[in-house]
From TrEMBL:
Residues annotated as binding heme: 378
The protein, known as: Cytochrome P450, family 2, subfamily c, polypeptide 70
Family from the record: Belongs to the cytochrome P450 family.
Subcellular location: Endoplasmic reticulum membrane; Microsome membrane
Residue ranges crossing the lipid bilayer per the database entry: none
Keywords: Endoplasmic reticulum, Heme, Iron, Membrane, Metal-binding, Microsome, Monooxygenase, Oxidoreductase
Membrane-topology descriptor: Peripheral membrane protein
Pfam families cross-referenced by the UniProt entry: p450
Gene Ontology CC annotations of this record: endoplasmic reticulum membrane
PROSITE patterns xref list: CYTOCHROME_P450
GO MF, one annotated term: heme binding
One Gene Ontology biological process: xenobiotic metabolic process
Length: 433
């Protein structure tokens, strides 16, 4: 459609018009240069019941700005971007390595184990707690999150987004609501524990910081720091901080099995820079341009969130000669940037060379925006970069990935491509190096 109508055009889903923004220059002008006008979050029908207008994903205006600023402050206080959180990730990745060793090189589906690291890292931020991989609560949270990702990315839910009345019918969306309700119960239990042990002078995690803020603003009837807002925000942070990262890692391993020559080259770099007797750290990234390029190329190629949850214009906007009224729903095509042919030659090919210059050094690209850009970009982007680099590097330091089929026969086509781009299920063998 963009080839025919240009980088700004309207499509109708049912009777609802959406303005689509396509291409790097268009997204930059809208989300950065006119970021305030395009900063409001739209609705996504199946999530309305769970999120309403609370949390960090679907809130708008003053509530959203306060929540985002508060969360970033807590992340800084807890050491995100510093050695504190890096050590936590390294410890969790080592637990993953031990769990993978127990598979004894037998075929296994890595879906659950790969989700344990980002899940426990987020639990550290939220609850100052980690779960053993055998814990039933952890298993439920991961499995229900995976199920909900499949549901919201399915064709049925895309149809329900166009015609919300369909949500009254039986369907997978009922399972989504049940999973959300159970997740809320678990989170509420942790909040109650925090309320009983709260130390005003020594907050340990996000929930403590939020509860203290609630107490301080107890007499402010207009305060945004309420229990409902806390629960929804925790749900948002958990979902955003676990599912996209675990999906990216899972998809990444599939691609590395498909292209074993890339895995071999990564392991050569690991042997040269790190060796086999110490754990990788973030300081290694600057000396590992090929590994850095692979991590970026995985995110670019899989395009895990092709179209983020819609935006809504906050006021009447004049944009590229068009008048866009206040309240217009906006669809942002991240795919159009991540697969731009001018920036990434052969964009449909998995090629780490997209992020390497002629001398083999890492090449940054303004077109790399899997976390979106501007005011609504992902607040956990820095944390996600740390996790993906450390997880993938450590796995390849300790294991060779052995597929169940000839690499040429491995299908890397996503099985769902709605809100998330999800890889097909697969098994592999983690062969100790």
């Amino acid at each position: 459609l963009a080839k025919e109508y240009g980088p700004v055009f309207t499509v109708y889903f049912g009777m609802r018009p959406y303005v689509v923004l396509h291409g790097y220059n268009t997204l930059k002008e809208a989300l950065i240069d006119q970021g305030e006008e395009f900063s409001e979050r739209g609705r996504f029908s199946i999530m309305d019941e769970a999120a309403s207008e609370f949390g960090i994903v679907f809130s708008n205006g003053h509530r959203w700005r306060q929540t985002r600023s508060f969360f970033l402050m807590v992340l800084r206080n807890m050491g995100v971007g510093k050695k504190t959180i890096e050590n936590q990730i390294e410890e969790e990745v080592w637990c993953l390595v031990e769990a993978l060793k127990k598979t004894n090189g037998s075929p296994c589906d890595p879906t659950f184990l790969l989700a344990c690291v980002p899940c426990n890292v987020i639990f550290f931020v939220l609850f100052q707690k980690r779960f053993d991989y055998s814990d039933k609560k952890l298993q439920f949270l991961i499995n229900s999150s995976h199920e909900n990702s499949r549901i919201v990315s399915s064709s049925w839910i895309q149809l329900c987004s166009i015609f919300p009345a369909l949500l009254c019918l039986p369907g997978s969306h009922k399972n989504y609501s049940e999973n959300i309700a159970e997740q809320k119960k678990l989170i509420m239990d942790h909040i109650k524990e925090h309320q009983e042990s709260l130390d005003f002078k020594n907050p340990k995690d996000f929930i403590d910081y939020f509860l203290i803020k609630m107490k301080k603003e107890n007499d402010n009837k207009k305060s945004e720091f309420t229990m409902e807002h806390l629960i929804t925000t925790v749900m948002d942070i958990f979902a955003a901080g676990t599912e996209t990262i675990s999906t990216t890692i899972r998809y990444g391993l599939l691609l590395l099995m498909k292209y074993p020559e890339i895995s071999a080259k990564i392991q050569e770099e690991i042997d040269h820079v790190i060796g086999r007797h110490r754990s990788p750290c973030m300081q290694d990234r600057s000396r590992m341009p090929y590994m850095d390029a692979v991590v970026h190329e995985i995110q670019r190629y899989i395009d895990v969130v092709p179209f983020p949850i819609p935006r809504v214009t906050t006021q009447d906007v004049q944009f590229r000669g068009w008048h866009i009224p206040k309240g217009t729903k906006i669809l942002i095509s991240l795919t159009s940037v991540l697969h731009d042919k001018k920036e990434f030659p052969n964009p449909d090919k998995f090629d780490p060379g997209h992020f390497l210059d002629d001398t083999g050094n890492f090449r940054k690209s303004d077109y790399f925006m899997p976390f979106s850009v501007g005011k609504r970009s992902c607040v956990g982007e820095g944390l996600a970069h740390m996790e993906m680099f450390l997880i993938l590097t450590t796995i390849l330091q300790h294991f060779t990935l052995k597929p169940q089929f000839d690499p040429k026969d491995i299908d890397i086509t996503p099985v769902e491509n709605g809100l998330l781009s999800l890889p097909p299920s697969y098994e592999l063998c983690f062969i100790p190096v």
